[in-house]
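Hypothesis: this fold can be encoded by more than one sequence.
Test: take the structure tokens below, design a sequence, compare later.
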């Protein structure tokens, strides 16, 4: 089969991280081809909860999340389309005094590192913000500039903006094998072999296998994260909500529907490329919602689904140059929180690939960090993971 070699960069994967990286690379003048096994935004990046959340991030991710959040607020200027971004604020609710103490400790820890975006608020302020909440709440953490957006629309916006800059997207094009050939990287697909000077692996839950082909073993595993969406109900909640003591991600859209999730684990079928809902686990999540909003007890669920997401063992992504080969890069393993990071990480990846040095340190996300941990307790980065 012919080799197709008119690109400077091959991006493997058309999720938000692949499309955002392609956009930022194309903005810098690189000729980019994106190879996508299914279709752009088919997996996590098109089916997630849309939470644009700096709240609750592990410490090493916070600089990236804050940078990315600025980009969310300027999305319309950047892409000509805002991805449906609504700066609703994000509120993490405490339901007991002990949980409120945990919130205070979390915010004090952040402040000791110079981060002031999370604020502890008392019960009265929580109820002023969200009067429909059950009265047993004790307070929470509030981040005013966070919000939510529409995942499929956002990822498509990055794709279209990248295309306007000349990037090519080939869907239905699974990369079976990656290999260096001379000074170039090749990607073997059913459409032929593509080659380029540089390659980015942004293949979500499927990235581990491609990294392995380059001789890099990463402890990454898939999970099927679930969401459900309800029938329409009169407006009762403005902020995007989470809870301190139990899993919850909750928001009401302008059309009245409510999306409920919170890293609810269903079933991931990597080989069949899809996720399955575990309805018994969804029931537990519905219980959390009716505890917090008793008036929703009789609200029907319209549909539920699961998306396949990549998790690493230290709950941090891999955003890194290869340690075994030149001109090979990775951006994957976003552990259920990569939507918010998409705009910023794409920019940092483009800087890493084109300049060799990103404008924010990516050291905590190096691909070889798992090797150095073997036999020792935990690295500084892992110790700093505080949710
Ligand atoms: C239900 C759910 C709710 C979530 N909620 C939130 C949230 O509220 N906020 C938040 O910040 N994050 C959230 N996330 C996480 C977020 O969606 C992901 O972290 C992010 O979308 C990951 O993007 P990605 O581009 O790395 O991966 P993906 O979106 O999985 O994209 C990877 C792409 O690579 C393609 N691919 C794989 N292998 C190959 C190959 N060999 N050749 C070619 N293409 C290949 C796949 O088909 C896929 O399209 C949620 C995730 C899920 C599933």
């Amino acid at each position: 089969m012919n080799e197709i070699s008119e690109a400077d960069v091959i991006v493997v994967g058309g999720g938000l991280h692949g499309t955002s990286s392609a956009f930022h690379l194309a903005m810098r003048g690189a000729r980019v081809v994106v190879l996508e096994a299914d279709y752009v935004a088919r997996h996590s990046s098109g089916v997630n909860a849309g939470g644009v959340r700096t709240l609750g991030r592990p410490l090493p991710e916070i600089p990236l999340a804050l940078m990315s959040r600025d980009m969310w607020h300027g999305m319309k200027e950047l892409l000509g389309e805002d991805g449906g971004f609504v700066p609703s604020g994000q509120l993490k609710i405490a339901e007991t005094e002990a949980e409120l103490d945990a919130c205070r400790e979390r915010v004090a820890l952040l402040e000791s590192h110079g981060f002031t975006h999370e604020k502890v608020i008392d019960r009265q302020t929580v109820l002023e913000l969200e009067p429909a909440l059950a009265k047993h709440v004790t307070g929470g953490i509030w981040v005013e500039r966070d919000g939510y957006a529409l995942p499929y629309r956002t990822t498509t916006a990055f794709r279209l903006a990248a295309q306007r800059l000349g990037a090519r997207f080939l869907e239905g094009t699974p990369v079976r094998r990656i290999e260096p050939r001379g000074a170039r990287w090749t990607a073997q697909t059913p459409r032929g072999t593509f080659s380029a000077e540089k390659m980015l692996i942004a293949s979500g839950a499927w990235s581990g296998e491609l990294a392995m082909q380059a001789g890099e073993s990463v402890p990454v595993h898939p999970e099927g994260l679930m969401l459900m969406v309800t029938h329409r109900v009169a407006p009762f909640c403005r902020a995007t909500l989470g809870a301190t003591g139990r899993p919850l991600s909750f928001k009401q859209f302008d059309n009245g529907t409510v999306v409920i999730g919170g890293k609810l684990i269903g079933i991931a079928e990597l080989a069949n490329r899809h996720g399955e809902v575990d309805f018994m686990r969804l029931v537990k999540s519905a219980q959390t919602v009716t505890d917090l909003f008793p008036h929703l007890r009789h609200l029907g669920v319209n549909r539920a689904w699961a998306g396949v997401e990549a998790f690493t063992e230290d709950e941090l992504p891999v955003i890194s140059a290869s340690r075994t080969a030149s001109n090979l890069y990775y951006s994957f393993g976003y552990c259920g929180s990569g939507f918010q990071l998409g705009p910023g990480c794409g920019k940092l990846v483009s800087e890493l690939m084109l300049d060799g040095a990103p404008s924010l340190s990516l050291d905590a996300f190096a691909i070889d960090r798992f090797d150095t941990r073997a036999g020792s307790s935990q690295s500084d980065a892992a110790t700093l993971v505080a949710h």
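The first strand starts at residue 3 and ends at 4. Residues 338-355 form the longest helix (18 residues).
Hypothesis status: open.
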